[in-house]
Amino acid sequence: MNLRAPAILLAARPHGESAVIARLLTQNHGMIAAYIAGGRGRQLRPVMIPGNALEAEIRAKSDHQLPFARVELVTSRAPWMTEPLPAAAIAWACALSASTLPERNPYPALYTALDGLLAAICHAPSARGWLAAMVTYEAMVLRELGYGGMKPDINADFATQFETFRTLHRPIRDHLFASQPRDVMAARVALGERLARII
After folding, report:
1. Beta carbons of 20 and 39 less than 8 angstroms apart
2. How would you class 82 by CB atoms within 10 Å of its CB: exposed for 0-12, middle for 13-18, buried for 19 or more?
3. Contact by Cβ (8 Å): 97, 91
4. How confident is the model at residue 182 (pLDDT cuts 50, 70, 90)?
5. Burial class (CB in 10 A: 0-12, 13-18, 19+), 64
6. Whole-prediction pTM value?
């Protein structure tokens, strides 16, 4: 593997003294787990925020080796991580993607949809401007992974969109996280609680 491509950082877990193992979603190569040296250092720490758009250079000597990556920041989501509702939405969208998408399987439509969802979360004046994109993305993940699913009405009012968000909870939990040891769904529950306060 030797590629350079735009990527969305989905997750970054500490490894050793200063490195991270990052999950990067690319449009044409799918999700790739990669070792990033110095990922917890002063220079790269602001880059290692889930949701950030990056330019990634990824190399591996063989298909069985964990790739090494070098990354450059393209778009930072850091300013929105201090606001509770956008931060919860970004955390859930990235956790959903990192925990369910199989490695190195390209899902170009999901990459484009997630990129658009993250932009909407950061630039819409309120959740009324991005909840339709969130439920559309969740439904797309279910469909792309073979579980069918509804096609949400993107023109519905906010209350209807929230009901769709609640309806999707069970299929996401039962199909995508049935065998997950970690409670990733807690991020979705936290987001739902914040959205409910707007209704």
Report:
1. yes
2. exposed
3. no
4. low
5. exposed
6. 0.94
35 plus 92 within the same structural domain: no
In the numeric block, the tokens 């929105």 are attached to: 80
For residue 72 the two structure tokens come to 């450059």
What percentage of residues in the chain have a pLDDT greater than 90?
87
Q: Are residues 137 and 155 in the same domain?
A: yes
Last-in-domain residue among 40, 58, 76 = 76
Q: Are residues 99 and 136 in the same domain?
A: yes
Give the amino acid at 181.
P
pLDDT tens-digit map of 11-60: 999 998 899 999 999 999 999 999 999 999 999 999 999 999 999 999 99
Spatial distance between the Cα atoms of 139 and 109, rounded to a whole number of angstroms: 12
Q: How far apart are CA 198 and CA 182, in angstroms?
A: 29
Backbone angles phi, psi at 69, to 5 degrees: -130, 145
Number of domains in the chain: 2
88 phi/psi in degrees, rounded to 5:
-65, -40
- Among candidate residues 76, 107, 135, the one where a domain is terminated: 76
Coil, helix or strand at residue 75: strand
The answer to whether residues 90 and 158 belong to one domain is yes
Residue 195 to residue 122: CA distance in whole angstroms: 16
Both tokens assigned to 25: 């979603």
